Amino acid sequence: MKKMIVAVLAVTFFAASAFAADVMEMKKGVTFSHKAHAEALKDCKKCHEKVEGGKIEGFGKDIAHKKCKDCHVEMKKGPTNCKGCHTK
């Protein structure tokens, strides 16, 4: 019984953290929907080093302006100008 409770709590914790990270508020008024990007790209390695995901090493202004913008241009979808991402 004790193992069952621990298992349920672990699943609940990991599910909650996954949903919590769905929409991220980033610096300078940028809102990012991880779910929308994951569904559109279907390949975690487009952004992450590993298929499992995780933090993007060195992520910041330079990577966002290069990698994210280049992907939007390539896919012909998503904002490519300043006000498209920096909405606030």
Protein described:
The protein is built from 4 helices and 2 strands; from the N terminus they run αββααα. The chain has 88 residues and is mainly α. Strands 1-2 form a two-stranded antiparallel sheet. A hairpin with a 5-residue loop joins strand 1 and strand 2.
Keywords:
mainly alpha, Cytochrome C3, 4 helices, globular, 88 residues
* Terminal CA distance: 49 Å
Quaternary organisation of the protein chains: single chain
Count of folded domains? 1
Measured by DSSP, the beta-strand proportion falls in 5-15%
pLDDT < 50 runs, ≥5 residues = 13-20
Mass-distribution shape: globular
Tell me what the CATH architecture is.
Answer: Alpha-Beta Complex
The helix/strand class is mainly alpha
CATH class: Alpha Beta
Largest sheet: 2 strands, antiparallel
What topology does this entry show?
Blueprint: H1 2-20, E1 23-25, E2 31-33, H2 34-41, H3 61-75, H4 82-85
Antiparallel strand pairs: 1-2
Task: Offer a concise description of the structure.
The protein is mostly helical. It has helices at 2-20, 34-41, 61-75, 82-85; strands spanning 23-25, 31-33. The protein has a single domain (22-85), classed as Cytochrome C3.
